[in-house]
Amino acid sequence: MESPPAGRGIEIATAIALGIVSLVTALGVLQASVWNGDAARFGSDAADARDQSISVAVVSQLKARADLGAMYEGERIARLQDEALAAGDQIRVFELETALTSALGTVYVDGARALFDAWRADGFPADGNPAASADFLVQGQGDADALALTSQRLGQLGKDLTARAAIFGQASLVHALALFLFGVAGINRLRTARYVTLAMGASVFLFGLFLMSTAY
User: Whole domain around residue 111: which residue ranges?
Assistant: First the structure.
């Protein structure tokens, strides 16, 4: 047995420890709940961005095919125009210029006419179609790629927050064990048993804090 003053001191220490552990446990559960909520929101936003990226990518591919076809159609018209110009048929040249402008007007990417004129000046090399160039494709696929990257980033953020919340959940279980040990120490009347139980509770509590620190 222990003396009344010593027992009173241990009871006070146990009560303080119980209060601290309870507060830390409650804050940990609250933080885990916040992270889970944020993770769910990020997951939803990631799914939306992924769906949009797929839709935009499909539209971009259709536009790229249309642009490629328009460029080849422009090449055909330009060659006919060169033949008409060589033959001195100015009326035919003007008619074909209107047709060329109309064909290139369907191209979705800005600056298509300038790119076409450069291709034409080079003699229409087989591998020089501007609509098949990397820069041209980047312009068309930029939005889809940006949405895909946004989806990946949001998804990763959601996974990170879920992992942090899981760690805090584990820490809450550890702190629950610490609360149990402190509670046992509070009702135990044997000095040695009290000290041992308090030490165990403190060790478990510190381990829980260490576990929480790994989430950051």
Answer: 4-213
